[in-house]
From TrEMBL:
InterPro entries: PEX12, Pex_N, Znf_RING, Znf_RING/FYVE/PHD. This is Peroxisome assembly protein 12. The keyword Transmembrane applies. The gene is LOC113495631. Belongs to the pex2/pex10/pex12 family. One of its GO terms (cellular component) is peroxisomal membrane. It is found in: Peroxisome membrane.
Length: 331
């Protein structure tokens, strides 16, 4: 009877909105770059002890993310970001949902863990390799050998696959907005839907543990430790949300437009040698591209490679991003 009541409760709950679906995806994509900044800071501060973490960050995050997602799938039938927005994964088949209660079947739990952890890891690794091959192709380092032709085909194939996956995601979201149950391609592949999760039970916190410890009730203090772990996880969820909020705030241009316009940089004497030439290769421009932060014009290949590696202008050392490059069409 209790299982049937839980099934009815979940069935009658409303479907998550598009905002919840897209917001939990954005939150999940925030954790890895945020932790990477922490690792880079530790590596710069303690190079002898933490320097290796930068080279093996993808593998370290794979281990961390695997443990985190496994815990949430096991206890809440949801991913880390889905649990933060109060969502729950349920099978589309009503019979499977009725038999499994509030816990995913084992095969769906394992498949969800693989798609949440292994698939992003493989995608990031493939993307790094393809980016390196794309850069070699743009710079003309790929010859006519069979291996180089295969790399060139892989670059174009990856672009097609990436575009197709983005279109598939938009199509699934459009179908979800029209009433379909699956909100993402991964959930559609597993035949899973998202529902509002029931409220979590309050099992005490720091105050109960401290009170039991002071009074000498060690057994009760130990029994309340899982509650502390739950509080720590909630703190991690809100920490990830705050990081996402800060990234959104830093991406806004309103507060930057309110600042006074800085004076233009002084023209240096060596700039005369760079007239109608790229300051990096000292040759005539090939695909002239301006870096707005400094105003200098470079070859696209030269400046894109430098900005990706150093995130700054090679002449003025001002911070710059590859997304700020502007192509010039000069007659």
């Amino acid at each position: 009877m209790a299982v049937y009541a839980a099934h009815l409760t979940r069935t009658l709950q409303g479907r998550p909105s598009l905002f919840q679906v897209t917001a939990q995806e954005a939150l999940g994509s925030t954790v890895k770059p945020a932790l990477q900044k922490v690792i880079e800071f530790l590596a710069a501060t303690y190079p002898n002890k933490c320097g290796w973490c930068v080279d093996w960050y993808d593998e370290l995050y794979l281990l961390f993310d695997g443990c985190l997602q496994y815990y949430y799938l096991k206890h809440y039938a949801a991913s880390f970001s889905e649990s933060f927005y109060g969502l729950l994964r349920v099978p589309v088949s009503s019979s499977s949902e009725f038999s499994s209660g509030q816990q995913l079947p084992l095969h769906l739990e394992k498949a969800s863990l693989a798609l949440l952890v292994l698939l992003p890891y493989i995608r990031d690794k493939v993307e790094k390799v393809v980016d390196r091959w794309r850069e070699d192709n743009e710079e003309g380092r790929l010859g006519k050998s069979r291996a180089d032709r295969a790399r060139r085909v892989a670059v174009h194939s990856y672009a097609v696959v990436h575009t197709a996956s983005a279109c598939a995601r938009l199509l699934v979201l459009a179908r979800y907005a029209c009433g379909a149950r699956c909100a993402t391609p991964a959930l559609a592949a597993l035949r899973l839907a998202l529902r509002d999760a029931p409220p979590r039970e309050d099992a005490g916190g720091w105050g109960d543990t401290l009170r039991h410890a002071v009074t000498g009730d060690i057994g009760s203090a130990v029994s309340s430790l899982p509650a502390l772990g739950s509080l720590a996880l909630r703190g991690a969820e809100w920490g990830a949300f705050c990081v996402q909020l800060l990234r959104w705030w830093s991406a806004r241009a309103d507060h930057q437009q309110a600042l006074p316009t800085p004076p233009p940089p002084k023209r240096e004497d060596q700039a005369l040698r760079w007239k109608n030439k790229c300051p990096l290769c000292l040759q005539s421009w090939k695909i002239p591209t301006v870096l707005p932060v400094s105003g200098y014009i470079f070859c696209y290949i030269c400046i894109s490679r430098h900005v990706r590696a150093h995130s700054s202008c090679p002449v003025t050392r001002c911070p710059a991003a590859e997304t700020s490059l502007v192509r010039l069409y000069i007659d």
